[in-house]
Design brief:
Elements (H helix, E strand, L loop, with lengths): L1 E5 L8 H14 L4 E6 L4 H8 L8 E2 L7 H8 L5 E6 L5 H9 L2 E6 L3 H21 L5 E5 L9 H12 L13 H9 L14 H20 L11 H4 L5 H8 L1
Parallel strand pairs: 1-4, 1-5, 2-3, 2-4, 5-6
Helix pairs in contact: 1-8, 2-7, 4-5
Bound molecules: adenosine-5'-triphosphate and magnesium ion.
Length: about 250
C-alpha cells in the first residue's frame, strides 16, 4: 500500500479538494483506494454520505494517533493507495501521518499566507525526516490556478519554488466549478451531471494529469525507493524475498 498525505497549515489551500480528486481518479482507474478524513470539519465524510455507491472510495473519519497504526495495518491488506486529508493543525497526528506517507503533497495557492502555511508543513515534514533519519518525499501542488491567466505568474511561482529546491508537481490544479460541484453532488467528476459542473471534460483531464504526476512520484526510484520512515513500525511487513536474498 502507498500512502499520500495532503497538508498545508493554511486553511482553504485546497487539501480536501486535492484528496478527493486524487482518490476518485485512482478509484475510477480500478485502484483500491481509501480516504482518511483527519479534519474535524469532516468534509470528506459528508461527501461520502451524499453517494454511498461502492464505486467511490470509503472514507474513514475520527482518526486519532492511537488508532491510526491499526487502521493502516488493516487497510494495507486490501488497499493499493490511501490518501490522507489533514486539517490545518501542526500537531502530533500530522507528524505521524508525514512519517507514514510515501509522499506528502502541499497544495499552495499564490498567496503569502498560503506560502507561510506551506513552509510550516514542509518544516514539520523535515523535522520528522530528521528525527527518523529517513527521507520523506514531498512536493508542492499548485492549486486553484486560474485557467485563463495561468501562464506568466504561474511559471514565475514554479521557477521561484524550484530555485529554492522545492519539488513542484508539473500539473497544477486549475480553478474549476466541477471541483466544487463534486462536494455538493457527491460521487466523482466522472459521475457529475453535465449541467452541474461547468467544463467537466477539462476538469477530468486536469485531475487525470494530476493523478499521473502523483503516481510517477510514488513510482520514482523503482524497487530501490525508500519506504516511509514509520511504515515498518505499523503496517509495512519486512519483505521475505529480500530477507531470503540477504541470507543467500
Ligand atoms: N481547484 C479548485 N477549483 C475550484 N474550487 C476550489 C479548488 N480548490 C479548492 N476549491 C474551493 O476552495 C475552498 C477550499 O478548498 P478545500 O476545502 O479543498 O481547502 P482545504 O485546504 O481543505 O481547507 P481547510 O483548511 O478548511 O480544510 C472550497 O470551497 C473548495 O471547493
Ligand atoms: Mg480540508
Amino acid at each position: 500500500m502507498r500512502v499520500v498525505g495532503i497538508a498545508n497549515m493554511k486553511g482553504g489551500s485546497g487539501k480536501t479538494t486535492a484528496s478527493l480528486l486524487l482518490a476518485t481518479e485512482l478509484a475510477g482507474r480500478g485502484e483500491t483506494v481509501a480516504l482518511l478524513d483527519c479534519d474535524p470539519q469532516g468534509h470528506l465524510t459528508q461527501w461520502r454520505l451524499l453517494e454511498r455507491s461502492a464505486d467511490q472510495p470509503p472514507v474513514f473519519g475520527n482518526i486519532t494517533t492511537a488508532g491510526l497504526p491499526n487502521l493502516l495495518r488493516r487497510l494495507s491488506e486490501n488497499t493499493g493507495v490511501t490518501v490522507i486529508d489533514l486539517s490545518g493543525a501542526s500537531d502530533v497526528l500530522a507528524a505521524m501521518c508525514f512519517g507514514l506517507s510515501d509522499l506528502v503533497l502541499v497544495p499552495l495557492q499564490g498567496s503569502a499566507m498560503d506560502a507561510r502555511g506551506a513552509s510550516r508543513a514542509l518544516e514539520l515534514v523535515r523535522y520528522v525526516a530528521q528525527n527518523a533519519q529517513a527521507p520523506v518525499r514531498q512536493a508542492i501542488l499548485l492549486s486553484r490556478v486560474s485557467p485563463i491567466a495561468a501562464t506568466r505568474s504561474l511559471r514565475h511561482a514554479i521557477e521561484t519554488l524550484r530555485a529554492a529546491r522545492v519539488q513542484v508537481l508539473d500539473t497544477p490544479l486549475v480553478e474549476r466549478g466541477a471541483y466544487r460541484a463534486v462536494f455538493d453532488h457527491g460521487g466523482a467528476l466522472a459521475t457529475l451531471p453535465a449541467a452541474l459542473g461547468g467544463n467537466i471534460a477539462n476538469a477530468r483531464c486536469n485531475a487525470a494529469q494530476f493523478a499521473d504526476d502523483v503516481l510517477a512520484m510514488l513510482d520514482a526510484g523503482g524497487e530501490g525507493r525508500k519506504p516511509a520512515p514509520f511504515s515498518s513500525l505499523c503496517f509495512r511487513q519486512s519483505r521475505p524475498d529480500l530477507a531470503d536474498a540477504a541470507l543467500r
